[in-house]
Fold this sequence. Notes:
The structure is a single chain. The mean pLDDT is 97. With 213 residues, the chain is of the alpha/beta class. The termini are far apart. It folds into 2 domains: 2-91, Rossmann fold (3-Layer(aba) Sandwich); 94-202, 3 Solenoid (UDP N-Acetylglucosamine Acyltransferase, domain 1). It has an 8-stranded mixed β-sheet, covered by helices on one side. It has a 6-stranded mixed β-sheet with strand order 3-4-2-1-5-6. The protein has helices spanning 11-26, 73-85; strands at 2-7, 30-36, 46-47, 50-54, 65-68, 89-90, 93-94, 99-100, 105-106, 111-112, 117-118, 123-124, 129-130, 135-136, 141-142, 147-148, 153-154, 159-160, 165-166, 171-172, 177-178, 183-184, 189-190, 198-201, 206-210.
Amino acid sequence: MSDLVIVGAGGFGAETAALVEDINDTASRWSLVGFLDDDPELHGTSVIDYPVLGEVDWLSKHRARYVAAVGRSRVREELTRRLSNIGATPATLLHPTVSIHASSSVGQGSILCRATTVTVRTMIGAHCIVNLHCTIGHDCSLGDCSTLHPGVHVSGDSRIGAGVEIGTGAVILPGVQIGAGSIVGAGAVVTRDLPAGVVAAGVPARVTRELDD
């Protein structure tokens, strides 16, 4: 078994710990050492019986793989850049119920949660989060550090840029491109391309504002 720490001791971090337990119930793969979080008030506490060991820089002095279990794409981008700079090694976690075709690929550090389906010729980048009950159709791509919240459906031939965040229950129609760093609101239906760095919501989804750099 390989040592693993979860970066981020919030709600999704706890869900990721449960995902690791489910993986180990199928085949012993990971020894979950605990959590890392930069919030000093969490140090010395525990999350579902796993200790919060200290700050993220703990990994500069200890040998363990990590996943960044932080739901916000922008925050996760910053964390993984910082972890790369100290030479930390990411793990990739796929829940045992994930269905993914052999022609598709998942980048290092990504987390695919329960009951997710990825069909053919799809590329998921590094440090992505694909939450519960998502579907990703044929010939799609998800850029690094993109986030699909629960129940998102991405139709075939879609291109999701790096750092994009798509809210719970949103639907991306076939062939749509979403520019890097954009946010799609929960329940939206995206029928046409969206530029980088915007917030879009509604049915059909429309740009509501631009994001600050």
